[in-house]
Write a structure and sequence with these properties.
With 364 residues, this protein is an alpha+beta fold. The protein contains eleven helices and five strands. Strands 1-2-3-5-4 form a five-stranded mixed β-sheet, covered by helices on one side.
Length: 364
């Protein structure tokens, strides 16, 4: 059922209730006005019910006119009851400034009606009753509408904030996935591209050297496919699952697959690292080797320093002016910086006396 149809049916029901109240005698009999005449202001207020959502201000104006007309000939209870809906609709669906205005003047209106009645009848008890009755058809509808409206506004704001949080979570997850995919793909495929280029460009390689390079290419391909399958399985899985997580303890295998002359120095006492730190350290070393493959040359030196409350990584490699056919967009440097920052650590990368230096400190 559409809102307009709901309002129309509500108006019909309100008119029927008003007629029942008139038949039951809920109007001022002393005025001597025929019963049928009270139907006119009642019908006018019901018209306001029909347009309560589309024209709430107009509905209020119509209701005020009908209430004044009804008071001049009666008054009657039915018209006053329907008028309370006109006030409620104007406060709920109309401009917020109108609601604020009604909140301020409706108590004054009720008190003024009570005072006028008390002065006219010299019966302040009856004046109190009148003030209470006027408050029921003005103050109560406006107050109720204000509560409902504030509740709806709060719910709307909560929905907007929830949507912002959802978009932020999706953006953060996309960034994390992009970082993982970049580190995973760039390392293995860079090694494959450079090693295969070496085989194609050099004619002086013996069969043993060619076999070693091809074996390294195959190992990078297999490892890359395994990590990719693990990530795809993680993305397809429902609920929580354990990701295929590389570890810094496998740095020797990483160095071997790179095919570059590399020295690894471990300082301090090696220990189990938190999963996030372990993965970040592995990816930083992996990306540094990838950059050395793409833009530098051997030998590469890797220093892993296990400190009491942190892990320090230092990777150095010479820089060559020899052009590479592998594109770079500095996404690797951004990803390494993000990993270190997310763990409350620091990251630096840039030229040094030994060529290029990457330095990362991760809190453990």
């Amino acid at each position: 059922m559409t809102p307009n149809r709901q309002d129309t049916l509500m108006a019909v029901a309100a008119f029927a209730v008003g007629v029942v109240l008139l038949i039951a005698g809920a109007y001022d009999h002393k005025s001597g006005v025929p019963l049928q005449l009270f139907l006119i202001p009642l019908a006018i207020t019901c018209v306001g019910v029909v347009i309560r959502r589309r024209r709430p201000v107009t509905a209020l104006v119509i209701g005020v006119i009908a209430l004044v007309a009804d008071a001049s000939i009666g008054p009657s209870l039915g018209t006053a009851v329907v008028f309370s809906d006109n006030v409620y609709a104007a406060s709920l669906y109309g401009p917020r400034k109108l609601m604020t205005l009604l909140l301020r003047i409706s108590p004054v209106w009720a008190l003024a009606a009570g005072a006028a009645t008390g002065l006219q009848t010299h019966d302040w008890g009856w004046g109190t009753v009148m003030a209470f009755q006027v408050g029921l058809i003005t103050v109560m509808p406006v107050t109720t509408a204000a509560i409902v409206r504030n509740h709806r506004d709060n719910a709307r704001q909560a929905a907007i904030m929830a949507e912002f949080d959802r978009k932020a979570a999706i953006s953060a997850e996309r960034t994390r996935m992009a970082r993982e995919l970049h580190d995973l793909v760039a390392n293995h495929f860079s090694a494959i591209a450079i090693q295969s280029s070496a085989v194609l460009s050099r004619k002086d390689l013996d069969a043993k050297s060619v076999r070693e390079i091809v074996e390294s290419i195959r190992e990078n391909s297999v490892q890359g496919m395994a990590e990719m399958r693990g990530m795809i399985g993680l993305l397809r899985a429902e609920g929580e699952c354990e990701a295929l997580r590389p570890s810094l303890s496998a740095v020797d295998d990483l160095v071997k697959r790179s095919g570059m002359t590399t020295t690894v120095d471990v300082l301090g006492a090696p220990r189990d690292l938190p999963p996030a730190v372990d993965l970040a350290a592995y990816r930083i070393v992996q990306e540094s080797l990838t950059n050395a493959l793409k833009h530098g040359s051997a030998p590469v030196s890797i220093a892993i320093d296990y400190r009491p409350d942190e892990l320090a990584l230092t990777i150095n490699n010479p820089v060559t002016d020899r052009p590479r056919d592998l594109p770079g967009a500095r996404a690797g440097l951004i990803g390494m910086h993000e990993r270190a920052t997310l763990l409350g650590g620091t990251f630096e990368a840039g030229p040094s006396e030994r060529g290029w230096r990457v330095s990362a400190i991760l809190s453990t």
